[in-house]
Amino acid sequence: MSSTTCVVVWVSCGSKLENITTTTHQKSVVKCSNNNNDKIRFTSISSAAVAAASVPSRSSEEKVYEVVLKQAALVREQRKRRTIEIDDDFMTNLHLLNAAYDRCGQVCAEYAKTFFLGTQLMTEERRKAIWAIYVWCRRTDELVDGPNASHITPTALDRWEQRLNDVFQGRPYDMFDAALSHTVSNYPVDIQPFKDMIEGMRMDLRKSRYNNFDELYLYCYYVAGTVGLMSVPVMGIAPDSNSSTETIYNAALALGIANQLTNILRDVGEDARRGRIYLPQDELAQAGLSEEDIFNGKVTDKWRNFMKGQIKRARIFFDEAEKGVSELNSASRWPVWASLLLYRQILDSIEANDYNNFTKRAYVGQAKKLFSLPAAYAKAFLGPPKLTKMIMR
After folding, report:
1. Reported confidence tier of residue 382, pLDDT bands at 50, 70, 90
2. What is the pLDDT, as a whole number, of residue 7?
């Protein structure tokens, strides 16, 4: 998936990797417009709307929110998966299992250095579990965006999904699978977000245009928002949190959407050279832009105005994500805050490049990264309100 250059664990943590493949609740969901003058709009999803699972006219937000409700329910109940008795070296030999987790940690340390550093504050059990999820996501992403991507077929993705089913049944194929299998047996993690990520890979094989933001939103959920749903059960919710589990999951989802939108805006030129446009076609037309304008890669006033609206939308999702980060277990907040702050700065870099994301790559320099780490640490342990008060004194 050309626009997804990093897989995120609630949500984004590193650069492109080399191939390592071996309800009834009401909820407000962010509905963001590309119009610069529009305010944030919220759509209340009633229990009737959620129940109408077969109605084709449902928005992508409604479809995704059903998954959010299910994941939140698992965490509330703290349901554990049934332990399956199997005769497998990886799952029954503690030494081999620890070696599998260690290998996952090595992959995370090599390709997601900042995030890996943050995971060191977690308990050993949570840290290893997050590593296992990270590696599975990376391997999945590499299927369609790695060195062997040209050889990947829908049938190959079907086999990968069957392998996932086996992992959730305690039948790992290799050491990376064993680490994930052990993780999902110890935490209330559901298989649906993992399946949805694979569906995002299928979408990349058959689709290179998105008619509107509703379509793009669903894609962003598949390839990035899913990771937040996978990770919250492992990272844990703060014991003193007053927020509902649905609110926290929705924030995790928002961070995934925000980061993927940022990926897309950063990589417009790179994707265009591959014949792909991950931008809403109707909004391009409304801005007076065509596909040829994208392929020609010329920065005009029309393009600048269009990009301002797209960046505004991404920032709205980042703002929504912030509401949930501080509700996580205190030991899990730092890597999430770090990824949020660093990724949001990519949008600043696009603006600094005068919206030239055709030939200039927006990135966060090393100095800014280093500066962001203590800021993320402070937000993680003081919380934004307390931090603001200290700064104002």
Report:
1. confident
2. 40
- The structural domains of the chain, ordered by start, are 27-392 (1.10.600.10)
Residue 252, both tokens: 């995790």
Across the chain, mean pLDDT equals 81
> CB neighbours (10 Å) of residue 38?
14
- What predicted TM-score, i.e. pTM, was given to this entire model? 0.80
Q: Is the pLDDT of residue 380 over 90?
A: no
What local confidence, expressed as pLDDT, does residue 9 receive? Answer: 41
Confidence bin at 53 (pLDDT 50/70/90): very low
Scan for tokens 């009834």, then name that residue: 24
